[in-house]
Amino acid sequence: MAPRKPREREMLLESVIALIFIFVACVDLCDGATVVDVYRLIQYDMSGVPFGSRLASLNHHAASLHFSPHVDLSRTVLLIPLRELNMSFVKEYIAESKPLGGLIFLLPRMFSFENKDGMGSNHQDESKELLKNALDELEQILIHANLPYPVYFAFEDDNIDAVLTDIKKNDVTGQPATATTGGYKFVVSAPEPKKVVSPPITNIQGWLAGLKTDDDAHQLPTIAIVASYDTFGAAPALSVGSDSNGSGIVALLEVARLFSLLYSNPKTRGQYNLLFGLTSGGPYNYNGTHKWLRSFDQRLRESIDYAICLDSIGSWENELWIHVSKPPENAFIKKIHEDFSRVAEELGFKVNLKHKKINISNPRVAWEHEQFSRLRVTAATLSELSTAPELLGKTGGLVDGRHFVNEAAIVRSVKLIAESLARHIYGHQGKNIQIFADNSNLAVNPSYVQSWLDVLSQTPRVAPFLSKGDPFVMALKKELEDHTDEVNLHRDVLDGMFTFYDSTRAKLNIYQVASVTFDLLLLLVLGSYLIVLFSFLVITTRGLDDLISLFRRPPSRKVKTA
Prior knowledge:
The chain is of the alpha/beta class. The chain folds into 3 domains: 31-116 and 131-195 and 504-513; 200-493, 3-Layer(aba) Sandwich (Aminopeptidase), CATH 3.40.630.10; 520-550. 36% of the residues lie in helices and 21% in strands. The protein is built from 14 helices and 19 strands. Strand 5 (76-81), helix 2 and strand 6 form a beta-alpha-beta unit. It starts with a helix and ends in an 11-residue tail after the last helix. The relative contact order is 0.17. Residues 25-29 and 119-123 have low confidence and may be disordered.
């Protein structure tokens, strides 16, 4: 009997240890429901004033908009679908700085740049337009607010929709999710956001030299075609800017391709140099354009006949706008407008002219051409927008996705630009001559437009988060090298009033948490089971007397007296 006792004790010890591990694992009873990709609201400072979401980590219970009135939400994350968005609620909580544990906005899949499905049937267009307008308003509210809690965006899917349904059911009962009542817990493990030190900006420049009349081609007049390529939005990891300014980039690349065909043959090479510029820092008063122009030598700057800047030309129907800083009566401005208007009339639409005088003392730069105008270079911006957007507005935000851009509009814009430039270069103004006629070797290529639009519509490109050797920047450089000469990069640092912080995307872990009441009940059951198991093992191995002796009071020791 004696040799069995060590083995029995070992079995008893192993059973107890195993049960303890089971108990510890079950007491929290956090069942991992799902893991979701989330995208953080931008965090930045403007002139030292903080804006955006100031925190990244998250560890709170979840609730929906159906929470009970007067409930404390300081340790609660609200999961709000865009389809159910109550704008008054959002404005109230932000304006009055009411405490929240966090916000997660649930967006329809159509706003995801990974969504390759079509927009759907026409009868849904109205509801989609309403959602687009609501998201646009929400984005502007969020990027201009200082929010002392984490704010994230996520996209609808079956898993998170099921979680939201359960959360709503719990909220309808009037019991918010807490450690006492249970529910769902949202956890984002993220480091404290850090400042982006010396955010880089990279300008890309290409050149098509005109027909030389002497040894120095730079003595020829130059036309500059320019487009800003970076974006800004509420969620940097989602800011693809298909229209603003993906459409402008695509148009510039296609114009470069078309003129490279003309300029490759000395017989059709014009007596104008063509300068192509893809600039960075557009949302921040066109800081990159400013630095790029300052890098020009004086002869190049003085040789520029005019510059045409392309901005948001992918969502229009019947009219475009040419924005200028010089008065419409100016001979150069009048000629630019006439050239574009004649071609537009032939193509079946209208080009309007809009003058906005610039204030040199005001640092705000509304249009890219204004950076040229400040250096006394004639310039204009071609855009579908009739008025200049506000600072950080319409710069490639959440609503500026692939499904809201019309490829045909970009193709028509390219025809307008290329034909107007060609007639100016070759002296065909006023003549109904189509140099880039359809079905010719010089026709605009819709497939080329579509392919680059698809690439841009899947590439977030907020300048402070693009590295110096970013693959996207290198891809633009290579594409420009295929069509132009002397392509080079102009690198600098974004300066001025903006400071940015990292941590733009994360993983959201959703746990289903049991209530404390259930934990106590589980504790009671497991405790009783352990006592019964322990008693059974002692009785079978050592006998009932030994079990009773464990609970019997030991006899007191008497002190022997002499």
